[in-house]
Amino acid sequence: MKSKAFALFLKDFRSELRTRYAVNSLAMFIIVAISVILFSIGQEKIPQNLTGGLFWVVIFFSAMSGLARAFVSEEERGTSLTLQLIASPSTVFTGKLLFNLILVFIMNIIIALLYSALFEAFVILNFYLFLVTFILSNIGLAVSSTIIAAIISKAGSKGTLYPVLSFPILLPLILTSVQLTSACMVGTTFGESSINLAVLVCYDVIMLTASYMLFDFIWKD
Amino acid sequence: MSTSQYSTQGDSISKNFGRRVIFKNLSFQFDKNDVYGISGPNGSGKSTLIKIIAGINSPTSGKINHKNNQKEIIPEKLHNYLGFVSPYLVLYEEFSAWENLEQFANIRDVKFNKEKIELLLNDFLLYDRKDDLVKTYSSGMKQRMKFIFALMHSPKLILLDEPTSNLDDEGKNTVYKIVKREAEENIVIIASNEKSDLALCSETIMLEKFKV
């Protein structure tokens, strides 16, 4: 299944290079969102915890603008049936998840670099804790976005359904990530943040398991 | 007509969309290498039945069994045994015909048999356009391309929903020739209202008989 899923990921990657379905909307959203925050702050100094919160706000909305494309583009182009005829549901989900994982990591690394360069208050004192938080949150974000995208791709009003559905599902992830990022900025140790890290690990495992169990029912009419 | 190592059996299949009954208590068995037909007026459920047989849609009640060499095929593996052509099937328009087929073979994890693909491209008169993007194809060329997609992995069960739509006479003749050739070794099911399509079938399910 691994090689089939990787082949599906490569198909999506090549397709993205040619159509730029997700990359364009993601890039535009990141640029616009960070510019708006910068303009609205102006010369004001904002507290550290607020910077951490805004960092995850940009990530959350960027994810909503681009990650749904994984399944929505297949449904809009009418190629879902073709996928059903060449791959099993688990292969399709793994391939799409791989694509969204790569996209989330690239997107969030760019956001993190831009934040570090543009916001003076965004200073990470415990880098390793931030790195672990970043990796676990990105995995959770990719898994949740992929399964939500699969659900909404079958619905009529895709645009409104995605934020409505993703808000309650992503809320525990975002809240925990904001708390951990704030902790990283004041130099909290791993031991002091262990409960929040455990919450992130549990979130990732639960979402991944539930997604693989549900996807078969979502994928077939 | 020889006994096939592959068989498809439908047992009391019913399909409703909401309160609307499409067909009820439909049973069938396809176990010989031959061409079978599904016919009925518009809205009688020809495409729905084809999708149910392909495992894309679920029946409201009843069960479909696919067997290869007497062993039941699990739904996860069913796509490897199926070839499917329909007007609502769409290939990736941002890729060329060759790229589409190569990627399909990789995703199926089967060998990309260049000789067979070249033969099929020649049969369906697409060899000279194999490197052009699918979005530049006419509707007839896209329809012929779907046949190559359906046959490239040597399926045991070939499902053809309105196989000659968008095709000119030359295209139709090519399709009929290939359907006859495939039916010597595999099961072919055609869903259509075209008399010339149904003339190839040894048995035909008339769906209007199963509507309540």
Model description:
The complex is a heterodimer of chains A (221) and B (212). Chain A has 221 residues and is mainly alpha-helical. Chain A has helices at 2-19, 21-41, 48-66, 69-77, 80-86, 89-118, 127-153, 158-185, 194-219. In chain A, helix 2 runs antiparallel to helix 3 and helix 3 runs antiparallel to helix 8 (158-185). Chain A has one domain (2-219). Helix content of chain A is 84%, strand content 0%. With 212 residues, chain B is an alpha/beta fold. Chain B has a single domain, classed as P-loop containing nucleotide triphosphate hydrolases (Rossmann fold, 3-Layer(aba) Sandwich). In chain B, the strands form two sheets. In chain B, strands 6-7-8-3-9 form a five-stranded parallel beta sheet, sandwiched between helices. In chain B, strands 2-1-4-5 form a four-stranded antiparallel beta sheet, covered by helices on one side. In chain B, helix 5 links the parallel strand 7 and strand 8 (187-191). The model of chain B has no long low-confidence stretch (mean pLDDT 92). The A-B interface holds A 3-4, 7-8, 10-11, 14-15, 18-19, 77-79, 81-82, 84-91, 95, 220-221 and B 51, 54-58, 76-77, 79, 82, 84, 86, 88-95, 99, 103-104, 106-109, 149.
Give the gist of this structure:
Chain A is mainly α and 221 residues long. Chain A is built from 9 helices and no strands. Helices cover 84% and strands 0% of the residues of chain A.
Q: Give the strand content of chain A.
A: under 5%
Task: Specify the CATH homologous superfamily of chain B.
Answer: P-loop containing nucleotide triphosphate hydrolases
Domain count of chain A:
1
Largest interface: A-B, 26 and 28 residues
CATH architecture of chain B: 3-Layer(aba) Sandwich
What is the CA-CA span between the terminal residues of chain B? 34 Å
Flag low-confidence runs of chain A: none
The residue-averaged pLDDT of chain B reads 92
Provide a count of the helices of chain B.
Answer: 6
Main beta-sheet strand count, sense and barrel state of chain A: none
The strand line-up of the biggest sheet of chain B is 6-7-8-3-9
Report the helical percentage of chain A.
over 70%
